[in-house]
Specification:
By secondary structure, this protein is α+β, with helices and mostly antiparallel strands. The protein is 36% helix and 20% strand. The protein has helices at 3-14, 16-27, 39-55, 125-142, 164-170, 172-175, 218-221, 228-237, 260-267, 273-280, 293-298, 339-351, 378-391, 406-414, 439-455, 459-466; strands spanning 59-63, 70-75, 84-90, 110-112, 115-117, 148-154, 179-182, 194-196, 198-199, 201-210, 216-217, 302-310, 320-321, 324-333, 359-368, 371-372, 396-398, 418-420, 436-438. Strands 1-2-6-3-7-18 form a 6-stranded mixed β-sheet, with helices on both faces. A 4-stranded antiparallel β-sheet has the order 12-14-10-15, covered by helices on one side. 46% of the residues are buried. Bound molecules: ligand BES and manganese (II) ion (2 copies). One manganese (II) ion is lined by residues 90, 123-124, 157, 184. The site of ligand BES has 16 residues, from strand 15.
Amino acid sequence: MSSDMNTVHDWLNAHLTESVEELAQFLRIESVSTQPHHSRDVEKAALWLRNAFTAMGMSAELHPTGGHPIVLAEWRGAPPGAPTILIYAHYDVQPVEPLAEWTSPPFEPTVRDNRLYARGAADDKGQLWIHLMAIRAHMACHGALPVNVVILVEGEEEMGSKHLRPFIDAQCGRLAADCIVISDTPMFAEGIPSVLSSLRGMAYFEIRCQGPSSDLHSGQYGGAVRNPAATLSRILASLHGDDDTVAVRGFYDEVQNQAPADRARIRALPFDEELFKSEIGVTALAGEKDFEVLERLWKRPTCEVNGILSGYTGEGAKTVLPASAFAKVSFRLVPAQTPQEIERLLASHIAGLAADGVTTTVRMLHGGMPWSADVAGPAFDAAQRALTTAFGRAAVIAGSGGSIPIVRDLEDALGAPVLLIGFGLVGENAHAPNEWLSLNNFRLGAHAIAELFVELVQLPELAESHA
Ligand code: BES
Ligand code: MN
Ligand code: MN
């Protein structure tokens, strides 16, 4: 670590409490992107963020879209020849229901056990804030950054990033970068910094079974009228085989085999199956028996039922034959599956289960491509040095089962390496009640990102000699 960096690290340590308080303001804004009654709040978060960027000396703009606005911030004052880093994040958050399960209210950020509890603390406002702290520390200590920085923050990640794709295509000149840095993922384990080498893709559907035009008395009509809840149940049950593989014909056709070296790398990670089970409260794990648990989570495609709704579910008994039933079903994809192909396969699978008297429709809500990369080269080396300085140990290369649909699009459009360096932790309750961010990771993450900017200064030359 250079002496130049000592002041930056001191600044970060000295401003920790203040930074957490500022992040708390951001977290108080209820920017739930998928719920229309929060659309004003989503816009409020975008405006708040633009002001935060401006206050720290960046130029920032709001770009309206057909949905929620995109916030774009830039600082291009680095010396000639310095690289440009693109930071991507999202300011939207997931719904908070079930509200009763929260120990402290989701939009009243609260510190307990050195964790900051709030919706969006880990996913992704808190992780975006880590980058902002690193930038502010450099600005405060040196009046400048060692690299040019472009920050792209969207408000629709949790709903599939529909409007970001055309924006990237239209603005790819302005977004051009030597390296893309994203913190929107957990680390492999506490104290073990991680760089990700893969994300799964996504194809998300709504399946609807429509029977009679209205709910019916199940005694007056049951026996002669097909029950859409039963039809839907058959469909859902047909999605998996007894061996837990996905039973949609053709589903595995495009799935690529993993390289033996990748499998070996995953097997070498310190994964504790018993701990994993006890943390989530299950007595046994499921899935494809020919693959290790981490491989099933990171490298294999899946099908999940996310929700089912039909008929009477209130207290007591009600005899009713429901008029309709629907379910939300998603598939996680791996290279070289595509959402379009999965949509085609699912449609023909369901067509094969047609039942007279019930009309079944399938609608794709959103889709995103899987991403995987060779984690090697000068950008990765720079990340390794930065993470080692901050965390006192080298990062592991991990995979992830989650999806950030835009990663693949960004990489394709900009032709730059992607560094997925997250500071969340397993157990952080992302998308669930009581989401939290480790304040220790918040601090170490800011040190790491501040170091990364310095480590990336040589990137353009190194990338040339590497090519
Ligand atoms: N930050 C997550 C992605 C993530 C979570 C990656 C955990 C790796 C591990 C992101 O905000 C997210 O939730 N993505 C959605 C996809 C989206 C299309 C709704 C997901 O993975 O379900
Ligand atoms: Mn996220
Ligand atoms: Mn998320």
